[in-house]
Amino acid sequence: MAKKETRGIAVVTGATGAIGQLYAEGLAERGYTLLLSAKSREPLEELSESITRKTGQKVEVSPADLADHNALHDFCARLAADRDISLLANIAGPAVFCPFTTISSGQIDTTIAVNVSAMTHLCRSVVEGFVARGRGTIVNFASMLAFRPWAEFNVHSASKAFAVALSQSLQAQLRHKGILVQVVTPTACARQFWENAGFPFDYLPPDAVMNRDDFVAAVLRALDLKEEWVFPSLDDPVTWTQFEATRIRLVQGMMHNVPASRYR
Ligand SMILES: NC(=O)c1ccc[n+]([C@@H]2O[C@H](COP(=O)([O-])OP(=O)(O)OC[C@H]3O[C@@H](n4cnc5c(N)ncnc54)[C@H](OP(=O)(O)O)[C@@H]3O)[C@@H](O)[C@H]2O)c1
């Protein structure tokens, strides 16, 4: 396939995962050159060769354990210094399915390090350059569980709620500076993530599981449309606008200087 005009470098974390692989390939097809990251080098190199073969785009790899403070900060420094980066997709987002009474401190630390800390630092590393250039895209992968925590996905659900709140404040600051901050909320669509978390994928009701190719195609279409909020399986987007309106009413209802009458 002939090499297409470049739209700058797209950085993709979690690039070797079920979603990341297809998403990265879709970005290459859209004209981005790629900087792909995951923990392990070998699958990244295989993916890089496959994407270059299929799309003709240049692909660089940068393996980094995002739960490792030093590795994260080296990676962020690399991103902050590169003026050609035009898109950051924070896809890496591990989960643990386990009661809060038995989740280990290591599992808590890793989930928060990748889903909260790394996402925040990675956004911070690109945002100054995006503002200076007056353009750029950040895509943060959250989850349906951000809106309805699942008890055994306790820390994971909370970390995804963080992704939503962080993205919302970034949207408010950056949308008028030419920068798109997009939030993607996957439901169930790929087995490996669930199995890694410790949840048997086949327990999910089949009609609640989206085909992975359909999911990624929908998410990439939403990127083409420059949507801020992506609910790939939600048919009626009014549900989201009503949810947001309720949230605003809740906050407006709290902005008083006296206790509610039931507490007086
Ligand atoms: N799949 C679903 O059904 C589903 C549902 C809801 C939300 N999501 C969200 O969608 C996103 C993608 O999911 P997925 O299904 O593609 O996941 P996946 O198949 O489990 O892939 C995980 C990816 O993240 C990387 N990763 C994990 N821990 C890392 C770390 N400490 N440092 C650096 N990279 C790390 C993995 O690299 P290595 O293999 O090298 O570790 C791999 O590339 C995640 O944010 C997930 O929370 C997925």
Topology:
Layout: E1 9-12, H1 18-29, E2 33-36, H2 41-55, E3 59-61, H3 69-80, E4 85-90, H4 105-133, E5 136-141, H5 154-174, E6 179-184, H6 191-197, H7 212-224, E7 229-230, H8 238-254
Parallel strand pairs: 1-2, 1-4, 2-3, 4-5, 5-6, 6-7
Helix pairs in contact: 1-2, 1-7, 3-4, 4-5
NADP nicotinamide-adenine-dinucleotide phosphate (NAP) binds next to helix 1 and helix 6.
Written description of the protein model:
With 264 residues, the chain is an alpha/beta fold. The chain has one domain: NAD(P)-binding Rossmann-like Domain (Rossmann fold, 3-Layer(aba) Sandwich). The chain has 8 helices and 7 strands, in the order βαβαβαβαβαβααβα. The chain has helices at 18-29, 41-55, 69-80, 105-133, 154-174, 191-197, 212-224, 238-254; strands at residues 9-12, 33-36, 59-61, 85-90, 136-141, 179-184, 229-230. It has a 7-stranded parallel β-sheet with strand order 3-2-1-4-5-6-7, with helices on both faces. Helix 4 packs parallel to helix 5 (154-174). The longest helix has 29 residues, at 105-133. The radius of gyration is 19 Å and the shape is globular. The N and C termini lie far apart (72 Å). The structure holds NADP nicotinamide-adenine-dinucleotide phosphate. NADP nicotinamide-adenine-dinucleotide phosphate (NAP) binds next to helix 1 and helix 6.
Taken in chain order, the helices and strands follow as: EHEHEHEHEHEHHEH
Bound molecules: NADP nicotinamide-adenine-dinucleotide phosphate
> For the record, what is the CATH homologous superfamily label?
NAD(P)-binding Rossmann-like Domain
Order of strands, widest sheet? 3-2-1-4-5-6-7
